[in-house]
Write a structure and sequence with these properties.
alpha/beta; Rossmann fold; 12 helices
């Protein structure tokens, strides 16, 4: 494997994937609609950031030749039915068509734990539909399904910590929903491992951490580690839905949406017997020791530095 096209390479997970590819001596091409967004990976010597709109079929097709594989990390968490369809289904469809035409067949696609066409949320259903499109395309496909991802720049634990620095109590919808959070460095390692290993073709791997938490547990942990714990009050279903709806209607990206709340009707935890990180030779990091490195005090260096420890396990 010499050269990989990384779609979504400037995002939270994408930056970690690019860093690991760089360490392994694998060149990565990272398209972005605005070059300013590529600053986070431009300093990596083996990463080529180029200005391109991958949602344009012609531009996407021009990007593919010369690459040995594609990594697709493009996704959204919030949106309406049309937007989820555009990003999670229509884009994979265009990607599959472009790959078939170009002769580049190797694809590692990051989906989501709980993806199901019968799932209660638009997010879950659209993720499953996107997987189905790629499965039917005859590509050399590996699918990764991570649980909620944590890390130094996450919008998950950091958000909970900030909220507790601002408010005396935390009213919380979906407080009893269960998650199995996974460190961003472990997911990035799984992506890079899969793109290098042909035996992973045709497989779907669940990416989860070693521990299960309720959402309330995670909020309390974020408050404790950041130094301002607050009481967490679980909201009844109806009131929780109202809270999510109010957040959804606020300007900007919502903290929570009604679709997020519907996702939480299904526990976001590993399926018994499903292929997982251990099958890729990865020992998942526990949440608290990693979270403590960026939630305590004013924040510290990104724990991506610990990837060297991960690499030594191979």
């Amino acid at each position: 494997m010499k050269k990989v096209l990384v779609l979504g390479g400037t995002g939270f997970l994408g930056r970690h994937v690019c860093e690991q590819l760089n360490r392994l001596g694998i060149r990565a091409t990272v398209p972005t609609r605005r070059m300013v967004h590529g600053r986070s990976v431009q300093m990596l010597p083996l990463v080529d950031v180029i200005e391109a709109d991958v949602h344009d079929a012609a531009q996407l097709s021009r990007l593919l030749p010369g690459h040995d594989a594609v990594i697709n990390l493009i996704a959204i968490l919030h949106g309406n039915r049309q937007r989820f369809q555009q990003v999670h289904v229509a884009f994979p469809t265009r990607l599959a068509q472009a790959m078939q035409s170009s002769g580049v067949h190797r694809l590692v696609h990051v989906s989501a734990l709980g993806a199901s066409e019968q799932g209660p949320s638009l997010y879950q259903a659209s993720k499953a539909a996107g997987e189905a499109v790629l499965q039917a395309a005859g590509l050399a496909l590996t699918v990764l399904r991570p649980s909620v991802i944590f890390g130094a720049e996450d919008r998950f634990l950091n958000l909970f910590a900030k909220l507790q620095g601002m408010f005396p109590v935390v009213p919380l919808a979906g407080a009893s929903s269960r998650f199995q959070p996974v460190w961003v460095g472990d997911v990035a390692q799984a992506v890079v491992c899969c793109v290098q290993q042909p035996p992973t073709i045709g497989q779907t791997y669940e990416c989860t951490g070693p521990e299960v938490f309720t959402l309330a547990d995670l909020v309390r942990l974020a408050g404790r580690l950041s130094g301002h714990p607050r009481p967490v009050i679980g909201l009844p279903v109806a009131l929780g839905y109202f809270q999510a709806l109010a957040m959804e209607l606020m300007p900007g990206e919502p903290l929570m949406s009604t679709d997020n709340l519907r996702s939480m009707e299904v526990d976001n935890i590993a399926s018994p017997g499903a292929p997982n990180l251990a099958d890729l030779g990865i020992t998942a990091q526990a949440l608290e020791p990693v979270a403590a490195t960026y939630l305590v005090g004013c924040g510290r260096a990104d724990p991506l530095l610990d990837v060297r420890q991960q690499a030594s396990r191979r």
